[in-house]
Amino acid sequence: LARKPAPRPVAQQVVSHQVVSHASGDDVHAETLNRADDVRPDGFSAVLETSNHISESRNGDEHGNIHGNYGWISPEGEHIQITYVADENGYQPSGAHLPTPPPIPVEIQRALEWIAAHPPAPETHGHH
């Protein structure tokens, strides 16, 4: 008996549809305009630029710290640019299109400062 192939999971079908529906003519036929990679004992640098306005540039050092940026043109025609640092403090992106957290309320900031200035006394364990 011949077996029919298993149907693809619905999630994959949806994802595939989304990718196809958002691809523009420029994206499908994008070409690499500029690419340069340089790996050295003290770090690396890499640059990428495509014909559909995607760009990336990054530099890393021998300690694993990376500084870079990347950008693209949104479907609405806006130039999106993200700058980042990735180091011992994690990935830290910045850019005009990224949401910013609300400021810490003054009362909470004062409480945090008070707690930092008044650490708890060490616990003592007596024998009974």
Automatic annotation (TrEMBL):
<protein>
    <recommendedName>
        <fullName>Larval cuticle protein 2-like</fullName>
    </recommendedName>
</protein>
<feature type="region of interest" description="Disordered">
    <location>
        <begin position="1"/>
        <end position="23"/>
    </location>
</feature>
<keyword id="KW-0193">Cuticle</keyword>
<feature type="compositionally biased region" description="Low complexity">
    <location>
        <begin position="10"/>
        <end position="23"/>
    </location>
</feature>
<dbReference type="GO" id="GO:0062129">
    <property type="term" value="C:chitin-based extracellular matrix"/>
</dbReference>
<dbReference type="InterPro" id="IPR000618">
    <property type="entry name" value="Insect_cuticle"/>
</dbReference>
<dbReference type="InterPro" id="IPR050468">
    <property type="entry name" value="Cuticle_Struct_Prot"/>
</dbReference>
<dbReference type="Pfam" id="PF00379">
    <property type="entry name" value="Chitin_bind_4"/>
</dbReference>
<dbReference type="GO" id="GO:0008010">
    <property type="term" value="F:structural constituent of chitin-based larval cuticle"/>
</dbReference>
<dbReference type="InterPro" id="IPR031311">
    <property type="entry name" value="CHIT_BIND_RR_consensus"/>
</dbReference>
